Amino acid sequence: MNHNSKIKKRLVVLGAGESGVGTAILGKNKGFDVFVSDKGVIAEKYKEVLRNFEIEWEEQQHTENEIMNADVVMKSPGIPDKVELIKKLQKKGVPVISEIEFAARYTTAQIIGITGSNGKTTTTMLTYHVLKQGDLKASMAGNIGDSFAKQVTKNDASFYVLELSSFQLDGIKDFAPHIAVLTNITPDHLDRYDYKLENYVASKFRIAMNQTEEDYFIYDADNKIIEEYLIKHPIRSRLLPFSLTKKFENGTYLEDGNIKITIDNNKIIMPTTDLALEGNHNVKNAMAASTVSHLLKIRKATIRESLENFHGVEHRLEKVLKINNVQYINDSKATNVNATFYALDAMKSATVWIVGGVDKGNDYSELYPLVNEKVKAIICLGVDNSKVINAFGNCVDNIVETQSMKEAVELAYKIAERNENVLLSPACASFDLFKNYEERGRQFKEAVREL
């Protein structure tokens, strides 16, 4: 052992995905003694990066005596807190943090943190799009693209727009975004929160826990869960609500088809008629993004143009092809019931709905009115479809089970008629038949193109 290893702090990274490898690089760059450990197999592209940076790593195991001597542990969001190893580290008093917490310590940039059960990816991409068009030196990270840690190592931007999941927020201690956005809260991921909604809600609100009176909290005031939580647990930051139905002195609301934003008597008004993305939920995403942009003093004309030329997110209500006048739509990113609610709500004509996967304790009842009104057939795509069949057996005459995307799409092609839709909006996670929702969406698009 070399004599200076005593001085070097030891950073152990658990999980060698995008966030893990990014953290390892930043840690190495900041002079830590870094060790990366993954219980699964590490992807070849990440092994190469670790070798290039001369970072020690192991796969398919967690060697405890290499881990327990850490000064700090960065845990990937996919690893639950309940794991024995994590409990041991916490008992020993070793800080176990997320990549977001680690990376934020090494940047002086202004951080815009965006979380919520739905809409966070679109809002993050839309906000980043406006900032770029407003010529701000901005980067986007978190759940999207290159990891936050890697970006902090490479190019320190002046602004970071971060998409944050509840799992990433569970691992923060001092992290405080200057501007926090909470798009909405609906029951999701309850399997990780002991099936208690209040645990999940508290987790989302961690985004504001270290904010001060100098910071801002932008949120959906139409969301009952958020409103009720704020009454019982007031936060310190300045509140900027947005709503489709209420009006505010400070905040953002809809009036006569216009978005009106007021912050300290500084008012801007923007029409919603030319928004690139359709649907009420996208009006809300636009409200959130434009409130951030107005706070950052971006010109109204720039905000407006950006909202009009933004193209949306892959796998989110993405129009794939029209075949025989049937529109095929990829909404693979809908991994919970509320996301699928938005998708069905946006359908203007009869729809063949492809649904199913790994259920996170879903309650499908809120979909009944929409399914009755819009869905002519249901195609189940999961290993176990019993819950979907039980939920919708009385709403729809035609329910079929399939085990592959190709089979599901070919069936949909047979059932759908002119001017109807075929919608992949699974309301579930994808891990039973696919690697992730992206792969599920890509397979859908390929199967449609092969028709």
Automatic annotation (TrEMBL):
It catalyses: UDP-N-acetyl-alpha-D-muramoyl-L-alanine + D-glutamate + ATP = UDP-N-acetyl-alpha-D-muramoyl-L-alanyl-D-glutamate + ADP + phosphate + H(+). Pathway: Cell wall biogenesis; peptidoglycan biosynthesis. Cell wall formation. Catalyzes the addition of glutamate to the nucleotide precursor UDP-N-acetylmuramoyl-L-alanine (UMA). This is UDP-N-acetylmuramoylalanine--D-glutamate ligase. ATP binds at G116, S117, N118, G119, K120, T121, T122. Residues 114-292 form the Mur ligase central domain. Keywords: ATP-binding, Cell cycle, Cell division, Cell shape, Cell wall biogenesis/degradation, Cytoplasm, Ligase, Nucleotide-binding, Peptidoglycan synthesis. InterPro entries: Mur-like_cat_sf, Mur_ligase_C, Mur_ligase_C_dom_sf, Mur_ligase_cen, MurD. It is found in: Cytoplasm. GO terms for biological process: cell division; cell wall organization; peptidoglycan biosynthetic process; regulation of cell shape. The gene is murD. It holds the Pfam family MurD_N. GO terms for molecular function: ATP binding; UDP-N-acetylmuramoylalanine-D-glutamate ligase activity. The keyword rRNA-binding does not apply. One of its GO terms (cellular component) is cytoplasm.
